[in-house]
Design goal:
This protein is α/β, with parallel strands linked by helices. The protein has helices at 11-18, 35-43, 57-66, 104-108, 134-140, 143-154, 159-170, 178-188, 200-210, 213-227, 241-255, 289-294; strands at 25-28, 49-54, 74-78, 93-99, 228-238, 258-260, 270-272, 277-279, 302-308. α1 packs across α2 (35-43) and α6 runs antiparallel to α7 (159-170). It is globular, with a radius of gyration of 20 Å. Bound molecules: S-adenosylmethionine.
Length: 309
């Protein structure tokens, strides 16, 4: 089995936020290569407990191996963090971590199909037990639906043009590989010395759609609040602005001393209530210079922390 190596980001910041202590109970919804999980278990030695999960079977195996030295102090399950509250007891945790996105091994293993820089099948499933792959979506979704995905989850300005070209090309030949899709986009939108590859946003959008990443995040945040004790903290690391906006809005909504019905906050329609959370970080925290220099993949990471009241 190839080594599963993922460099965890902002470990010091996560530990400063969660303050792991002996006897404390923690949940890591994105255990990945277990870098953060190992740091939390080490900092909460000798009696801290960690419940962890990941959608990716390879990550779960790697994490269990990596955490062997903490045997008897953790349980790792394969699954979506949106379901954490289904197996971690309510109000039991002192800290919960969600470190979103994909791991380095997911990006680097060509067969997973996450990267347009690697020749592989158009897959992108974090959980390979799921039925719908990126190829399935690209070959069967209606043109309008593809355009919506590229626009909504990728912010791709050429969403309609790309969707139209995909529907035209797939009538001749199914899309099966990352290179096929990246090639089509390069032909329509040549790179012309631009820093980012023209397929970047389309690949991000497909990944978010295939894995229902935003829906999982919304359910995961709500679940995390259920399993936290009063005074427990939720730390979330995001890697793009869509995710960060969901986390920011969630924190703000839980920290308000009122609720409102409808989509717009009109003062006359507010219902007073006790806030459920306190914002520990008012602004998102970014990695420091040293980490940025050492780990280029950390450059888009943003950490937000809230505390349950
Ligand atoms: C950035 S990596 C986490 C790395 C980890 N913190 C470490 O120290 O190695 C993100 C991980 O989250 C997993 N993941 C993403 N969304 C998930 C979800 N909704 N439920 C469970 N795992 C998820 C991915 O499979 C991936 O392994």
């Amino acid at each position: 089995m190839p080594d599963f190596v993922h460099k965890p980001v902002m470990v010091a910041e996560v530990l400063a936020a969660l303050k792991p202590k002996p006897g404390g109970r923690y949940a890591d919804g994105t255990v990945g290569g277990a870098g953060h999980a190992a740091a939390i278990l080490a900092a909460s030695s000798p009696t801290g407990w960690l419940s962890g999960c990941d959608r990716d079977g390879a990550a779960v195996e790697a994490a269990s191996r990596r955490l062997a030295e903490f045997a008897g102090r953790f349980e790792i399950r394969r699954g979506n963090f949106a379901e954490l509250a289904g197996w971690v007891p309510a109000e039991s945790c002192d800290g919960v971590l969600l470190d979103l996105g994909v791991s380095s091994p997911q990006l680097d293993v060509a067969e997973r199909g996450f990267s347009f820089q690697q020749a592989g099948p158009l897959d992108m499933r974090m959980d390979t037990r799921q039925p719908v792959t990126a190829a399935e979506l690209v070959n069967t979704a209606a043109e309008q639906e593809l355009a919506r995905i590229f626009w909504e989850w990728g912010g791709e300005r050429d969403s309609r043009r790309f969707a139209k070209a995909i529907v035209r090309d797939r009538a001749e030949k199914r899309f099966e590989t990352t290179r096929q899709l990246a090639g089509l986009i390069e032909r329509i939108s040549p790179r012309h010395g631009k820093k980012t590859h023209p397929a970047t946003k389309v690949f991000q959008a497909l990944r978010i759609a295939v894995n229902d990443e935003i829906g999982s995040l919304e359910r995961g945040l709500a679940g995390a609040m259920k399993i936290l004790k009063s005074g427990g903290r939720l730390a979330v690391i995001t890697f793009h602005s869509l995710e960060d906006r969901v986390v920011k809005e969630f924190g703000r909504a839980r920290a308000r001393d009122y609720t409102f019905t409808g989509r717009v906050d009109v003062p006359e329609l507010r219902e007073p209530r006790m806030p459920e959370a306190r914002l520990v970080t008012r602004r998102a925290v970014s990695p420091g210079e040293a980490e940025l220099a050492e780990n280029p993949r950390s450059r888009s990471a943003q950490l937000r922390v809230i505390e349950k009241i």
